Amino acid sequence: MDNTNSPSPDQLTELQEKLFSESLKKQLPIISELASFGEVGLEVLRQFLEQESASPTPAVGEAYIELYQANSPKFNQFLADKFPQGVVPLKSERNIDYSPLQEALVKREFQEADRLTLLKRCELAGEQAMQRKWIYFTEVENFPSTDLKTMDQLWYVYSQGKFGFSVQRKLWLSLGKDFPKLWEKIAWKKGNLWTRYPNEFIWDLSAPVGHLPLSNQLRGVREFASLLSHPAWQE
Predict the structure, then answer these.
(1) Average pLDDT of 26-38?
(2) What digits encode the pLDDT tens for the residues 151-202?
(3) 223 near 180, Cβ under 8 Å?
(4) Is 189 exposed, middle or buried (0-12, 13-18, 19+ CB in 10 A)?
(5) 111 and 222 share one domain
């Protein structure tokens, strides 16, 4: 691993101390800076991940992604031993496998992750939803909270805290549950024009907060409203 951007010992110690003590907003750039230092910086991220992983945050997710993307035998082995299923527990009450969604998000393949999120929601809704490839709002009401929280946490933890159902819900509530304002805020609509799938959506972290995952508003607002009103977010 080429380590052309070596920090001084004092600089490394200072960054390490800040990483373990700062707020999430300040942790993310520190993680990026440490990763740029090569193996010495990644070793700090390994220690951070080992100590902080009990509560998966976007900083924990970002540290995991940096170690994963480094593709180093040493850190690959660490991740395989300590986090064989990633840093987010893949809990499901319907025996649904969320590992493909996690893999797509870790690789920052957000369009594929969005496709898989719809697929998993259809799986939750049942065989008829799987066949039609979309969901009735009444089916959303019966989704297990556990599964919704798993999908939401995967998006939130692996997107620097920018994406996920809970992020969208927070924006919706801040806008007085005004959906037209929400569409503009998360760039699903501009003026009277709906954002066209897939090319007009933004499939990376430059997207507005809450931009992903998508929900098909052309079928009406009720399915998305049911999702944002689900009891999962009250628990």
Answers:
(1) 96
(2) 999 999 999 999 999 999 999 999 999 999 999 999 999 999 999 999 999 9
(3) no
(4) middle
(5) yes
- What CATH number did the domain enclosing 146 receive? 1.10.10.1770
Q: Which residue range is the domain that position 103 belongs to?
A: 99-234
Q: Nearest CA to 146 among 84, 226, 229, 231?
A: 231
**Over the Cα atoms of the chain, what is R_g?**
19
Q: Which of 163, 122, 161, 143 is nearest to 235 (CA)?
A: 143
Give 78: exposed, middle or buried? Use CB within 10 Å, 0-12, 13-18, 19+: middle
Distance of alpha carbon 189 from alpha carbon 79, whole angstroms: 40
- Count the neighbouring beta carbons within 10 Å of the beta carbon of residue 199: 7
pTM of the predicted model as reported, rounded to 2 decimal places = 0.95
Number of H helices, E strands in the chain: 13, 2
* 219 plus 176 within the same structural domain: yes
